[in-house]
Structure formats: C-alpha cells, structure tokens
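The following block was generated as part of the benchmark described in Methods. Ligand: S-adenosylmethionine.
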Amino acid sequence: MNEHAAVAACCTELYGHPLASTLMGLSFHPGGLRLTEKLATLAGVGPDSLVLDAGSGNGVSAVHLAKTHGCAVVGVTLEPQGVQAGRVLAQRSGVAGQVEFLQSDVAKNDLPADHFDVVLMECVLSSIHNKARMVDRLCRSLKPGGRLALSDVTRNGSLPGEWAGPVMSALCLNDALGLDEYARLFENAGLTVEASDQEDLVVSQFIQGVRGALLVAEVAAKLGKLGVDVRHISTAKRILDDVDGLVRGGVLGYGVVVAKKGTLWNLHESSNQPTTGEKNNGAQADSERQTSPHQP
Ligand SMILES: C[S@@+](CC[C@H](N)C(=O)[O-])C[C@H]1O[C@@H](n2cnc3c(N)ncnc32)[C@H](O)[C@@H]1O
C-alpha cells in the first residue's frame, strides 16, 4: 500500500468511527463553524456560488454554507458514514436540494475543470501526501476568478520521531506545513494569495473540548458503555497531551489561507508573457490547462 492509500485508509477509519464525533463534535476542525464563516466571507461565498467542500467529513460546513448563504455545495469525503451523516443533516436542515455528498478521493478522482466558484478545504490538505498535485487539481476545478479557501494545522519545527506514520498524518499533524508554505503552494499553482492568518487560539480551545470529551468517554469505556477499549482512550489522552505541549511551544498551530484564480483576462495576459526561470508561473500554467483537458 502506498503512502497516500495508507493515510486515506486511516482517515476513513478514524473519521468514520463513532468515537470521532463523540470526541470532536460534528465539525472536525478547530474553530468550528466560526472559522468556516470567516473563510466563506473571505472567499466571497454568496447565493449564486457553487462550492466544493473537499474532505467534507460529516458535512457540517457544507450544510451550514447552504443554509446561511443560500449557495449550492458539493461535499466529497472518504468515509461513507460522513456522506450518510451529511445527507441526514441536509435533510433535517431543509437544504437537501442545495447540497450533494459523494464518497470519493479528491486526490485520485477527476474533478470537473473550471467548475466551482469556491473550493473549501478545512483540515484536509495537511494529511495529503502530494500536496502540490492536490492543489493543482483543485485549482483546475475552480472557475477563473474562483477562490481556494483553506484552514489547516500549521507546523513550525519538527515533531517527535515516533509521530511519523499514517495515523499521525490522518490526524493532520505529521505532514502539516507552515502557513507560508501553504501560501507558497497556492502561488506555485498560479493562485494569488489574498489572506493568510494564523489562528492559533482555536487549537487550544479545540484541545480543551476534546480533553473534556475524553474524560467522559473514559468513564463510559470503564463502565463498558462505549464499546471502545479503555486503552484506546488512554492512547488518545497521551497524544492529546503531546499535541498540547507542542501547541504551547509554538510548534503546532492553526491558520487560514485564501487565494484567487486569475480571470480569463489575467490568464490570457500571462500566456503572452515569456516564462521566467524554473518557478511555475501559475497563471500561465492555468492558461495551458485550459487547452489540455486531461492534465491532472
Ligand atoms: C479532519 S477531517 C475534516 C472534516 C471537515 N472538513 C470538517 O472540518 O469538519 C478530514 C476529512 O478529510 C477527508 N479526506 C482526507 N483525505 C481525503 C481525500 N483524499 N479525498 C476526500 N476526502 C479526504 C477525511 O475523510 C475526513 O473526513
């Protein structure tokens, strides 16, 4: 099994497990819907927008955007439980006609080109092995003038050696980048970064929430009422303590980056520019993609 497949398998198991919602709540990212709303505002989501929620988890953000902004949303995630949870939530929230959920791997399966006004990616890119390729695919799926809106774990410094491996990657820790590195990835794909903010406070709040839920889960597991081995709860507590230490030490944090794809006019302009050096001129790459439908 290659690295991507191993992380994808861990994501499917982790986020599809009932314990994930018990510990993290329905929204699987620090900052919850408040941060989703910040991204939506920065990305200019409105009633006419078509949004892709790449790695939609339980579908909470997708349903929230449809409900509060009146937009249409496609949520794509790996775990079938997330697709099911999203559909039920959309139905209950009265937005089933605006939101669609699909079980698919956005790193592997083709997305339509020039299709979405906004691509939202909350706490997902950090777990992707080939990030440049993923950003390129997402960028291609944006309409000219569309925006890629990311919130994710940030990492400045190295993590303990034993943190390597697919589980830590699936938890968005092991392969997280610094905020500047996410921004550079976007620029290398031809996007223009419009906003880039560190939001570290939300991780401490997230950790506090998970810590409280773990205490309750531990009691329930000891009473045999959770259907989970109490040793798993102890492991989760230990990982959480380590994460807390790294957050306090400034190694791990959380951030948002929003970047815009050039309009057709920009793309045309840049395709007339000579190429300079080895750095990928993203706008030019985009204009080349317009004529190359099979480019991944
Ligand atoms: C930390 S959760 C975040 C879920 C959601 N974005 C949220 O904030 O509530 C990561 C999610 O990304 C999904 N994911 C990871 N890699 C993916 C991929 N290659 N294609 C589709 N979904 C992916 C996982 O299945 C999981 O639901």
